[in-house]
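Model: You mentioned two targets. I'll fold them one after the other.
Researcher: Yes, keep them separate.
Model: Target one:
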Amino acid sequence: KFEVSRSSVRDAIRALELIGLVEPRQGDGTVVCDLSADSLVNPLATMLLRKRELVGELLDVRKMIEPPLAARAATHAAPEEIAYLEAILRRQREKVRSGELAIEEDSEFHYTIARAAKNSVVLKVLDVLMDLLRESRARSLQVEGRLQRSLAGHQRILNAIKRRDAAGAEAAMYQHVEEIEEIVLKKF
């Protein structure tokens, strides 16, 4: 009905347990705790203070992982993967022209580069990282000019991959993630 995986629901319930909003009860399942104003405000204030720091750390991890992936994709991508990256950018460009967010294309572009790097372990790590950053990515794509900057960054990365220029792809991806970081951290 809600198109959410069981593991996502489990993680959400675990997070609610950690901040004291729900508790498991034998025979009743998970129930909402009696709430006071303090029990709501304190975890929320802590979470908001921590969120900016966490997003910054997650973006640091992206800077550590994605530029080398782009470099590796430049030397390992199959012609059909490059063609697929071009198709993603065409769809992204059309959405940007019509004022749509192109969140799916943005994610798909980064995921396809990771796939083209031919490392399944890093692909899983990137998957988790992108899930953790989903909200901040969606918000950052709404910032004035961000869609165009993202598209331009993707084009620079793809051009380097097409040239089989590993150093150029790495530099372009690093610049792209730094631009994202600058925008995202202004939003928090």
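Model: Target two:
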Amino acid sequence: MQIKNRSGKFYLSSIGKAVRKMFSQFEISRHPSYILHCHFADQTPGTSRSLNADELDSLLADQFHTVDKDLKLQFLKSFSIHFSEDYETQFKNVLDCITSELSAKDSTEALSYHAILHAYLRNLVLTKPPGSRWVGLNDLKAAVREARSAIFTASYVTYCGYEKYLKMVRRQYLPRRVNVPNIERLFSFECTQETNPQDIAEAVLHICNRYRIEENSPAPYFTFRGKFDDRSIKASLWEVGAYFNDGRGYHGGNFRMEILTNPPFGAARIKVVEPVQLHDLMTEVRFKEFHDFFLVEKTDSPVPVPRPHHVFLESHGDLIEVFR
């Protein structure tokens, strides 16, 4: 935990609220280390101190008068106060670290990365329970990389126009290495209630024709997420000849993973997996590529893949031109 006191001198009373909050947390989760970071004008940066039993009792006051003495002693062994530099210096050091580790070109770019990382870490705190908020340098690099990609996409569409953006996407999907055999690929479509099932079916068929070579490459997997009528998409797939295997066998039986991954009744041109089965599938099948086609909000692969790719679309019908 960190508290801010920009210019004042150090008094025990100034850290009382923070100590009480940390003690309450210690009652729930007795981790070996509770560190209170703070800056005071009369304390040397880089130094630290602990509390004695009398100091802790004075800070806890009557709020914890029924707490066992042994628990307080355990907390004293785990708790320490670390005095840091002033906050302007801390912030400058953080920007220097961002510039060094994340290759920011200048202070302006470092500031933008700082904002990205602040949002990433804030979301982590809000969505992950204590004890599972581990972050490594690679996670921070990935957060910056994904944010830069999203910013680039939005800027390209805004300033160059959607048509030029689609041409750029089409160049990215030109058939260079697409027909490499034995590459497992997954294509994710974000759908809404306004989604045209016929556009989805035509796009899937074009993707299948690009990537699927009989006897050489496996059937691509497709998944559809969002609020939409699943049956209408499957019906449209059948109508255009994009015959699929969804792991349910004859006439929509119970889902079985082995039917989807290794169908006993012959290979279908494509495989359709429901979002709830996606994580289990991706832990069983080794995917090399994950392609996310989103209308509003992109999604990440539930299991890391070597080549994730996100494409913004105004309409799924635009994929017909991309993969033509």
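Researcher: Noted. Anything on target two?
Model: The first helix runs from residue 16 to 28.
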